[in-house]
Design brief:
This protein is of the alpha/beta class. It is built from 14 helices and 14 strands.
């Protein structure tokens, strides 16, 4: 590849992969089975320049490659219809990428197998792949992720190596009320706390219920990856590489143990925001992108009601999930209830959706962590139930005792 035998685009990509490998003192490169790339999100001219350089050399990806969320709301042809952004997507599709346009590719494409090496971008997707699926990926950044897709190679460093997947920090949630462990909001807040506390450590958690749901683990990982550098979490007795505490730590003792209690979680909630008296302008759910199961819960909570006319209720998701909702006869029900679909992008990114510069409620720890600096809004973090009740009432209604 470095010789140019596979084309100029592949040579360019391999040169970058080798430079990254050298910076991390990697002894070798390894094969990957898939990639999930961020380069189709238009942030500036560099995105187009990079894609054109590859496309002009007739470059093709070497492994199945999906595209993460883009800068367009694909569900609304009237809004943000930016020709450059669509050109960027088309360039990557022309190189063989699958335009799923979601930060949750595991809802759309085949999940990577346990132990499979991949090159995924998007922090919440990476922590899900490593933790819940047991696949192996570092947190790849744009341009490097696409170079990995083109070459099918990555440096053998970080979480690709077994010894770097051992837990180093222990978080015990035995002091948390059992009722809190049943609801998703707790997992968002636990993740926000762990991300801030863990630094460059790899967390293991004990005390979570054996029947902990995938959606709850996804919320925990996404929040931890937002507030910190976490790319993998072991839930002891639940996630595949942590059947026991000893297995999670590879037989070594924790560097540090943290006992998580009510005050820990309350503090995390207060830092994100639990404002009660602000004028509610919007509700945003779907960070990471809302799953089909999330929409099932949303329909049940709406229960035939409609969002107040003064409030915008945005649900960010993928076109594939929208298609499932339509097939199941749920899409019109949600839209009739006042839910506005944002397809293929995330609502905490600019340009801001109408209403998201005011005071916003969200059930996502990730959204609450990023949006104030990204959009300039103020936030109330809440459970999905609280978000729905507030949206229908047209004012903030906090029901949970956090």
């Amino acid at each position: 590849m470095l010789s140019g035998a596979h084309g100029e685009g592949t040579r360019f990509a391999m040169r970058l992969i080798v430079r990254v490998a050298e910076q991390f003192d990697a002894e070798r490169l390894i094969d990957i089975r898939s990639a999930h790339v961020a380069s189709a999100y238009l942030q500036g001219p560099a995105n187009l320049d990079f894609a054109k350089r590859l496309a002009d050399a007739n470059t093709r990806v070497a492994v199945p490659t999906s595209l993460t969320a883009c800068s367009l709301n694909l569900g609304d042809e009237r809004s943000e219809n930016d020709a450059a952004a669509r050109q960027l997507i088309d360039l990557y599709v022309g190189m063989g990428c699958n335009p799923v346009m979601t930060c949750a590719p595991y809802h759309v494409v085949a999940e990577p197998a346990f132990g499979e090496h991949i090159a995924w971008c998007e922090s919440s997707a990476v922590v899900y792949a490593n933790s819940v699926l047991g696949a192996r990926s570092n947190r790849y950044v744009e341009f490097v992720d696409m170079c990995a897709a083109v070459t099918g190679r990555v440096p053998d460093v970080g979480l690709h190596r077994t010894e770097h997947r051992a837990a180093t920090l222990l978080y015990d949630v035995a002091g948390i009320p059992e009722s809190w462990l049943e609801d998703e909001w707790f997992y968002h807040l636990l993740g926000i706390f762990i991300g801030r506390d863990a630094g460059n450590g790899l967390p293991a958690i004990t005390g979570l219920p054996d029947d902990c749901r995938t959606e709850q683990l996804r919320a925990l990982g996404a929040a931890a990856a937002s507030s910190g550098a976490v790319s993998m979490v072991h839930a002891v007795g639940i996630t595949p590489e942590a059947p026991t505490l000893e297995a999670a730590f590879h037989g070594m003792p924790p560097r540090r143990e943290v006992h998580v209690n009510r005050q820990t979680i309350t503090g995390a909630a207060n830092r994100l925001g639990r404002e009660r008296d602000a004028e509610l302008s919007a509700v945003c759910v779907g960070a990471p992108h809302f799953s089909f199961e999330g929409f099932e819960a949303l329909i049940e909570l709406l229960s035939g009601r409609r969002v107040d006319a003064a409030v915008r209720f945005y649900a960010a998701t993928s076109a594939a999930v929208v298609g499932r909702l339509e097939s199941a006869g749920m899409l019109n029900t949600l839209m009739s209830g006042g839910v506005e679909f944002v397809v293929g992008r995330c609502t905490y990114y600019r340009p801001a959706m109408p209403g998201t510069r005011g005071h916003v409620m969200t059930n996502s720890g990730k959204w609450a962590y990023y949006a104030p600096s990204g959009l300039g809004c103020s936030v109330t973090f809440a459970s999905l139930r609280e978000c729905v009740e507030s949206a229908c009432a047209g004012r903030i209604k906090l029901l949970e005792e956090i």
